[in-house]
Design brief:
With 274 residues, the chain is α/β, with parallel strands linked by helices. The chain has 2 domains: 224 residues, Rossmann fold (3-Layer(aba) Sandwich); 33 residues, no CATH class. Helices cover 31% and strands 26% of the residues. The protein has a 9-stranded mixed sheet, sandwiched between helices. The protein has a two-stranded antiparallel ribbon with strand order 2-5. Strand 6, helix 2 and strand 7 form a beta-alpha-beta unit. The protein is globular, with a radius of gyration of 23 Å.
Length: 274
């Protein structure tokens, strides 16, 4: 019997080339190249590594988005995923994290054969909320571990030990399948698509479901109407002041120079305030 892994991925704008519409307070997406969310790529890579290690592993990648989001599904198939599902409907547009997790949960529950493990990225670079993964786990009623930087699946395919990143270290967590794990960039380095993989991906069909297929309430569960949060304002933070470089032959001398600099700066501020 196959060990089934579901990977949740999102198409996001390349933030290296994005700008902000200050009048509308939104991101300008027109003309901006789209990519697979980096943390989601790490989640997919970990699924592929498990598939490399164990036989009978089946990987399905799911995304919610406009028709062009199919491109990241083709990329996932070319990397080695087995199936791909696109939840695509205008009624799903404008969904916040709560509504998005409703749609994804419905898509996952619609899949035949269930699942053993769900992998997703820690957060998306266009929203940085890190909420969809945990919300999805709650709606599916399964355990969750976030910020995963290392993962070890036992050969019995039932027990998983993960190293969870914290601000000041890490913690080891043991969890049983089925469960959901959210990946950080430290987990691995995503592989590139292979030429053979690209050709094989072109032969596969992407499953596409609309809101009716998912059997979700477009007024109460998904879309803009069902979203309880909205973006108040988007802006570019002011650049920080330019730093200074203190050159010295010894640590003691560098500290002395730093103290002289800070004292002079403080005295200047006092004079200005007067």
């Amino acid at each position: 019997m196959a060990f089934k892994i579901i990977v949740c991925a999102k198409q996001v704008p390349d933030t290296n080339e994005i700008t902000i519409d200050f009048e509308k307070g939104t991101l300008k997406r027109d003309g901006v190249p789209s990519i697979m969310n980096p943390d989601d790529a790490n989640a997919l890579e970990e699924a592929l590594r498990i598939k490399d290690m164990y036989p009978n592993v089946h990987i399905t990648v799911i995304t919610m988005g406009p028709p062009q989001a199919k491109s990241i599904l083709m990329e996932a198939l070319a990397m080695g995923a087995d199936d791909a599902v696109l939840a695509c409907d205008k009624a799903l547009g404008g969904s916040d994290t709560w509504a998005t997790s409703n749609a994804l949960a419905a898509a996952i529950e619609k899949l035949d054969g269930g699942y053993d493990l769900i992998l997703a990225g820690r957060q998306a670079i266009d929203g940085d909320t890190a909420q969809v993964g945990p919300q999805l786990a709650e709606k599916l009623g399964i355990p969750q571990v976030t910020y995963v930087k290392e993962l070890n699946l036992n050969s019995n395919m039932k027990n998983i030990t993960v190293k969870r990143a914290l601000e000041d270290g890490y913690e080891l967590v043991k969890v049983k399948t089925p469960c959901i794990l959210t990946a950080t960039k430290e987990l691995n380095t995503p592989r590139l698509m292979s030429i053979r993989g690209i050709f094989e991906a072109c032969k596969k069909d992407t499953i596409q479901w609309n809101a009716k297929d998912l059997n979700v309430d477009v007024d109460q569960e998904v879309g803009l109407k069902a979203s309880h949060t909205n973006v108040f304002r988007s802006f570019t933070p002011m650049p920080k002041g330019k730093g200074i470089l203190i050159e010295a032959d010894t640590p003691k001398e560098s500290v002395q120079k730093l103290l002289i600099y800070l004292k002079g700066k403080h005295e200047c501020n006092v004079i200005r305030s007067k």
